[in-house]
Amino acid sequence: MLTSPSVRASQRRQAEGTVDDARKKQATGARRPAWLAPLEQQQQQQTGQHAAEHIDADDSDGSESTHSSVLLQGDRHAVYASGALPDEAAALVAAARACGAAVASGASEHFAFVATAAECVVWSLARSALGSGVHRLEMPGGGGEAPVVVLIGGGAGDVGVLACSGGGRLRLWARVVFGLGGAARFRAADLGDGLRGDVCERALLVHGDLAVVATRRGRLFQVALGGGELHARQLSRSAEAGGSLLGAVAALLGGGSGGSGGSGGDALVGLAAGARTELRQSREVLLLTRTRLVKWVVSRAHGDRLLFSADVARTLRQAAAARFGADADVELLDVAATHAGDVCVLVALHTARRSMAALALLSAPHVSAEPAVAALWPLATALDTSSLRLALPAGGPALFVVAPRAVVVGVLPPAAGAARLALEAAVCFRGAVLGFGAGADAALALVCEGAGAGVLRVAADVAARQAGADAAPAREGAEADELPGEQWPRPATRAGSSADSLAAQTRALTAQLEQAVFFGSDSSPLAFAIASSAPGEDAALQAAALHVSRSVLDGSSRLVADRLDLGAHLRERLRRAHAVMRVLAANGLAAKVSAAARAQLCAAAEQLAAASALWAHQNAAWAQQLPSAAAQQLPSAAAQLLPSAAAAFLEARGLRARDALRELLRHHTAALGALLAFVHGREPALRRALEASERGAGESRLVAYEASRIVAAALHAALRYRFAHAELYAVPADLAPEHWTAAAPVVDLLEARLEATYALCRDLSARHCAAIHERIERAALPGDDAADGSRLSVFDDAVSASFAGEAGSDAEPDDLASDDDPYASPAALLRDCVNLMGPLANLCFRAFLDRIASLRRAQSPGADAMCRRYDAVRPRFLLSLVPLARAPVAFRLAEEYCDLATLVALVFATDAANAAEHLRNYVGQFGAAFGRTLLAYYERRRAWASLLYTQDSAFDAWLKDYIDEREQEVPHGPMAQIGWVHDVKVGDFGAAAGKLARAALDSDEVSQTRTLLSLSKLAFVIADAASSDQSDSGTGDRLASEARTRLEDVLELCEVQESLQGFVAQVAAVALPLGAEDAIERSALDAAMRTTTPELRHERPALYTAYCDLLTRSLGGRTLDIEDILDLLTFPDNITVDSDLMRDRHCLAVDILSRTNHTIPASARNAALRTIWRRVFISDNWAVLQPVLSAPNVPDKLLRSNLRATELYHILRSCLAVRELPYPDCFISPTEAFALDEDLEHFDDNKNIASADNGPPSPSASRVLLLSGDYIVENNRLQGAVEHGLSRYFDEIMRMVADESSTPKSQFSRTDSSSESVDRSMDEASESAEAEGDGDDVQDVNMDSD
Description:
The protein has 1346 residues and is an alpha+beta fold. 49% of the residues lie in helices and 13% in strands. It is built from 43 helices and 31 strands. Strand 8 and strand 9 form a beta hairpin. Helix 11 (595-632) runs antiparallel to helix 15 (696-724), helix 19 (826-857) packs antiparallel against helix 20 and helix 24 crosses helix 26. The relative contact order is 0.03. The model is unreliable at 1-67, 238-264, 468-497, 786-811, 1244-1259, 1304-1318 and 1328-1346 (pLDDT under 50).
């Protein structure tokens, strides 16, 4: 980059870290290069109009027009607008294009022209308006080709025009602007027969009164312009001898055989003016054909001379073959002369691999010597070689190769031995180049059509060519970079490049991208395009884009113009930062840059948008506080919060500046997030200092308000830019890196600012808005730790404590309906704080989401904690808007962030009367997700009627799925109790029956359990009937029968519990009435005393305590487990109250146990069976019965009578003969009834001894020891009974019951007779059986005797 010494010194001081010097550098570093200044000054003198550039960088800011004549500014070349194309010229070009006619054009320093075969339009570049300074000239005609036009005169006031048609007809307008005759006054001439079928193609002005016209076959005609008439004559003819040494010598001696240099099939390709000679009004003229180079000296006073005619095609072909191989071929394209007298030839170099343009420098040839090739420089730019032109303004060293849509700017190296040009740069155009003209300086004037059509000037820096040549490494044998597609220069990257090549590609792409960013626009005539042939992502392109973006972000780019208006300066940088990605997208290169790099490009633009918004906010704050500051004669601490924080921020980093805020926004824009956090951290200390000073709390509130506004202004602008241009950057959510707005300090900052702003609203409303303050005091937000009973939670109690008609109203409270300045009116300050809550909440939620996404992509363990924090923050601040009368804002934010739980609460909290309509709308908007959230809300509020009251089939399906899922999550939760209601509603009676049965098992009350079981039975019957109508499957009938049997068993078990409850109440009522506070416990204790003996209470105290607990639960109507019922039936040993239930209680216990195989595990069932029969066996006093039963001479009748009198006999007879319980499944022998150690695990009271959340209970050691002692007592008693012959008596009783079971069953009916009549009939039957037995014995004896 070109810099002045003062700029370089400033850059050194900037490197040393002095900010004030950096400001000086900014003031001088943006100046135009010295070599470009004269061109700009000349352009400003010529025209007052400038091209406007419109780049849409931010929708909120609008597009600003940057007025500048500079269209491109590289390190060593530039393009600027010299004049617009007038309407007449544009119309002429359009008409010619429409009919396919040829167009000729050209330009000088002050004038330009466009010509067709019929007309020429000439205009002045210094005209003040498009409608003036335009002149139309009628062309001489002749043929359909465009005429050859030469502009004559170098002044800015007037110009002459020489026109020559293809047929040789000449016209001269000596003065176009001030001519007395106007366009109709001209002088004419005709080349006549001299052409002999040839066509005029080129013309050249030798000096003011002499011109040369060249034909297609290489003939030259001299045209004298002075005097009253045009005089044209052909130069000395030497067609036959022009190629021989004799002809050349003859021409030098003044012979008449000098030729034009064209012969045979040769044709003209170039005509150029050479150096001036020592003769007055004479000049060298170079004529180039396809094979030969001819040099003439043309003079008006001394005639013409042919200096030489050489076959340069052969010479150049030999040089190309020596360098590029034997197959290299050369095609001559154009010629120009340098100021040193050398000849520069533009050639097309064709090799086996490619074709390229090249420049050949021929040393100044002498008369008798063949021209020598001093250098051959291939151009690195890929061009179409079919139509190229060469221009060397003022003989160089600046040179220009003009293509139909591009210009290659070059600078000849100082030494011919250089490997390449000192400068090669390409400029592309949207439209075609109509023509060009070389000026007196190192610039080229171009006439272009298309977008921004007009006259352009291309300038090159020739002063630094020596430094550029020294710095550039030589590349011998290098070939041009070839690009497919449109043939105009486009640097490209290639895969597999080395590090040096990659760096070179990055530099080239950086330069081109920088030009496209700063100068590319739809209105520019230049075309800025970038191409990449690298597969996948392009590292060089990505590095170039990031470099340009960073240079714009920190203001270090040389193309960023320094402006005193910092706002305009920041907006300009924002547009340039935006243009980086826009240029990439326009060229189809967005995919060539990684998602992370695109996110960095977006972040740079976001930070500039935030800086621009922050500066605009600070300007508004300064303007807003001017009246109050003038009245107080003191600067407002709130208005100076940001500048003072910027100064302290820079000082903390070792930087100092006179205007810290300007310095920070200009050169440290990337630190904007840290500045916001610094402002937030500085605010509390500043507020405390203000509250302790004379300014008091009022100024302190303004500081808090201003801190929140600063944060909101900056981050809102950044996020607005991000979302407005999300499609342009196209950063996938799963690949995006962490946004700078989602850094942990920014998230904490936003959350803290929200809390501070809400606290400020609460503080201000206490003094200036009673309505708002009352709502704030009444509403307890989620997360409030000090919420007392008088405050209503908006979230949890929205159904019962609605703010309907208050917080849901859109009307502004009268205290807030003020347009006053918040710096002057506390009510206006409250209004602005309330209005600030919504934007701050929006920013906070977005920062949380970005932060969570970033942590999840990084697989950080803090992602879950951040989610929980966000879930707590979001409803709190959404619902904080309700008491602030900003419920519509809360609704919009809840919808945007899909906070469905808060949305449901808002519906009921703000407009409960119209809740149904709102809910229908949200169900239609969010679908099943909102429906499930609403159901969860009803469940949390225990609003079961609202939960089950649905009128939509879709909602019924959601509710069913929700109930099923909740039952799986919480098997014994409330959904298990009410889910059957919805099943009945939708007609799913089978599911209803199952849920009712499960709910009955979970119920703690016997009455409720029986009711639920009855309903389950009813639903089961309905479902069974419906299924039997639809299916005749035998398996289905069997399963239904089993289910019905189980249900009936459970119902009978409930009946048993109710009977036990009645029996216990009957026993307890004898002692004391039910009515005291501890009546149930005292009644249960009395019933336990009455149903047990002292011996039992003393021998088995632990079991007795458990028995008392069971009685208490039974009296309270609590549901008992099966083991509890069995213990309650078998444990008491002193039943004095006449009760059918307790009379047959042991048999009932065995019967209950026989029906519970599917309910309790086998180990528990076996333990319960041992307990039942153990207590049956020890219920009789076998020690007393043994002497009676074992005494000698005891009749069988007495034996049977004594056995029938035992409790064991009655129980066995009832189980086998009456209840017909299955044998041997429900029976065990005395030796099998001993208690085992594992029986303690199944003792039901253990669940109340030790807690166990999951798995079997673990009883405490002391209680287990007591229970084991009681079981030992029972085992000892059973052991004593066995020792007294219990096993023999048990077997005998079993045989007796079996024999008695053979009698007619009517005798064993429960209702036919009392037990005494049954016993009596049994005795009679036994006696008759004995008698028959005696007879049999006698008969047997007789038979034996026989």
